[in-house]
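Write out the bound-state structure for iron/sulfur cluster.
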Amino acid sequence: MTVAPAERAPREAAAGEPAPALRIELAEASRRLESASPAEIIAWAVERFGDRLTMATAFGPEGCLILHWLAAIAPRTYVFNLETGYQFPETLALRDRIAARYGLEVALERPETTVAEYERQHGGPLYRTAADRCCGDRKLAVIRRVLGRFEAWMSGIRRDQSPDRAASPIVGWDGKFGVVKISPLANWTKARVWETIVREDVPYNPLHDKGYVSIGCAPCTRAVSDGEDERAGRWSGTAKTECGLHSQG
Ligand code: SF4
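---
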């Protein structure tokens, strides 16, 4: 069971740059943890930030793997999913499977409006005509609200997923949200993630067995063919490659 942070006052957003001492500490920790295992990185984050640490997951393979370790290290960590209202039923069912397997309930953090209200306000779905605005309203505004209650967040990004993620440190300052960001799988490969999932029998999204590689909201995700880029199925046919959670600026 995760700890609901409802009683916590929103933290004063420390947007922009971290204090110099924190910057040095993070750089040193990141260097040291570059050769650590993901479980050791998670344990460091739990020890350093305690209940001021949170984790966001879209239930991708990396997120499921981190939850596998986190459940053994600090199962009361507040873990959340950005429930845009557009996710696949298989993704939401995976949340239940993870709860059954680990006793770890991932909170669903929702936007202010339901999908029906949002589409009524805008005369239809914005993902077709203004995907950046849709991600901004249904993901970025929500994660900003949640991270305002914490000092550090963990994510499952890997450096080799995309050029945007290639320089991701293990531990660094996330200037976009004014918090520390920890990426325990930053230097892992996709193959290593899947080998571990299979070996440890970690629950994963069944859509991965149907050609879906990177899975986000249903209207903006398609299966990919052999040889296509890992994220080619996201916002396919448009120039958009990221929802904005992991890009700076
Ligand atoms: Fe909207 Fe698509 Fe972004 Fe989901 S991924 S929030 S449906 S634009």
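---
The mean pLDDT is 90.
Residues 126 and 133 are 7 Å apart (CA to CA).
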